[in-house]
């Protein structure tokens, strides 16, 4: 114990972030629902990724969120509303029964995320294992530059995104090819996040294969069968949105054909 | 002890930053006013956040600062002038009595921050619990692009900022809505920071609900009832100023109405 | 052991990333091919650099890769396909015999990188000791702005890149001079990375002195006699591609002569 | 000892960077000239700051460098040429006698930095205590946008830079005022860094009060009476060069008068 406290004193920059732990070791009791030594437990993964996403400028202020379905119990773990995402701890987590949709755990002092119905819709209607929601500026800018659908074509990175087609032999998702166009639908923002549910459900019908929806002037929702997949999809899409904004600034349409950029700029 | 020194040798990059601690364990005596095991103590929080803000490029050189009111004693903790913000330690802190405005503690070798009267004005006239001052380039650029007031509208992130209205039932601050416009007044810079006091007080009258003031060609002051709130407000406003600059570069007015961006750019 | 676990609990953000180690200490057996205390062992260096490159946005999603030839055994160590690069561990590594090109080690659950034939070609035909492949946005944007060859001239940083000429006295590679132009060939992307092999081999003939090839709308391959050199070349080239994009945005041709920029912009 | 190695295994990303320490504890002998427990010893500070500057993109590849005069012995500590700056260790350091200019220590396997004569000139003719040299892209771009002198005016951050005037009462350097213009001379680059010496000495005559010189298409040299001051000057100048490039992109001359920006852009 002495070693730990002594160690922390050496790194004043860490003290603030570890306040939760401090409390935990002093006062809190163990809760099997949220406390686990397994780093892949949803409560641990949500805390770790929220910290990482905060550093990426995807969860500025208290924006954004993550929800993960427990692979054994099927319970939904959901980051709360209004919490500073880089300081989140397992004790802050809401847990919802995957079948009854009743809360198994409600943390004191927090409100449920207004995104909760959207997360649940992705779990239920898209068979998602995890959903990531960010306020990425690349998503906001893309939603200003594109009308109904974000489009980018012929970039290697789109191969990280599933096409929606399934290989009949292996049963695995077939990714987009380099020669494909990635389409991500854009829906209009509403006053409250839970009001997005109708547009989201409509999008599921109109774009049954998409793994993401951009919300205009707001951010993006990305889902996948596991949190590992959802994370990879989100990173690849953010990379592509960032690239699309830069291409627009240079005068190159992000969905133009291979070598068609020469129509728009004087190539060197 | 052996463990600690041995450990530090493994991480040469940490040595420079922890010099304060080294001195502390050797020579300094314990001061209850500034030394605390509680990571939420103002002296600890100021050090931790200054480090974080330096990494965000908000406290380049020795710019910027933070002041926090102790929630129990009401004393004001103030980062000193001229110190490298990423290396600040509790021993560098000025402490002022919240009532008499007399210094309870003056660190040797430092001058008080020229921002001190501005911080005190926010504590007294805005009932602030904490004030953050940064030299954010997004604030400087926004002050060049806007005349008297920075304006941005219809972006989800503005919901992180209070509207100034209070919910009559709960007594809580009501945040801005997605359909609102965020207005932040811009005041002219002066030769010395303490000369900003008159403009600041005038702004309190003209914009009684604002939680921030941009200083042209200088930076921004952001306050809130607690340091947690002030931090969230500052992050959200910086995000919005960054977005506004990018929108200006793309030709889109940051305060244009929803879907009005199509008037200014050819949407895809 | 208690110390370690206790320590990890203090830093929830680290838990996720160290999952591999957790497994290792519990279940895995020691493999001399990939486990070494020497931090310069290829398996360790690949993991460390993939983490660093991920933080640089060069390996977003699961993109990019690194391959290193073991200096004693001549075996090729290759990062697998589809793995999150910031979480890679020695156990994920493919190892190929440098002579027979047969796999000495195939990790369960991973596929070999589609870049493998390209890496092998660089080892064999360029006498490379290491190859770095990134999806750097600076490379993708450069490939859109330039036609057949990326060119930048008269920038100090190009002195980090070898000219291809060898000093007859010392036998060492002579770097480019400040007054030289750096040329990096650009090849067209294909549906699958292994289909790039013909273009790559052709480039070896056409540009025998290049240490890098840009793949249009995809990324870049950079190689060197050692991983230290390849890393330095890759960093310097990425710096130069980033600078070239910024110069294009300002209207200055990246390969214009010294003081010729005044032809293109109004200098202050 | 067990603890340390066990700990390192948990963090594969750290292994590469700490290779020097590993060697040190096993094989190297203690050298009083470069080994010190004092984190402010020049050899320790140079290593710590090179790591920090690398992370800032100021020392990409093996570019840039730092030299510090030992405050007691007057010896010059100089980072070597060609080393990866983020991995530097005290054992890599050149040490030169401040009077005789003879090397007190020459590390095996490294060449002296080509900047050495420039560093020595700053120590001797500017009474510098430390010199920082970076390949900052903000410096390179500024050198393309400005002709003979980089100029920026009426920005709060310029108050971090000394005016060259001395307060007759306190003997302290008087900083620039908010209403001043910061001028930094730009010299032409040469094939070899040591050939910059004549231009540098001429600049000392023409701009006796400058604390920095930009080298066109190359980078910047910044000096100060101590390494703390030089670091603050370098950060403030880099901030101002970054801001100037952004102002140019928006069409605003960086040295325009207060409120004159309205002549160049339509303010909102």
From TrEMBL, chains A, B, C, D:
UniProt EC number: 4.2.1.109
Domain annotation Class II aldolase/adducin N-terminal: ranges: 44-245
> Pathway of this protein?
Amino-acid biosynthesis; L-methionine biosynthesis via salvage pathway; L-methionine from S-methyl-5-thio-alpha-D-ribose 1-phosphate: step 2/6
According to its UniProt record, where is this protein located? Answer: Cytoplasm
Which cofactor(s) are needed, names only?
Zn(2+)
Q: Which residues form the active site?
A: 156
Task: Provide the residue positions that the database annotates as binding substrate.
Answer: 115
GO CC annotation: what is one?
Answer: cytoplasm
Under Gene3D superfamilies, the record lists: Class II aldolase/adducin N-terminal domain
Matching PANTHER family, A to Z? METHYLTHIORIBULOSE-1-PHOSPHATE DEHYDRATASE
**Under which name does UniProt file this protein?**
Methylthioribulose-1-phosphate dehydratase
Q: What taxonomic classification does the UniProt entry list for its organism?
A: Eukaryota, Fungi, Dikarya, Ascomycota, Saccharomycotina
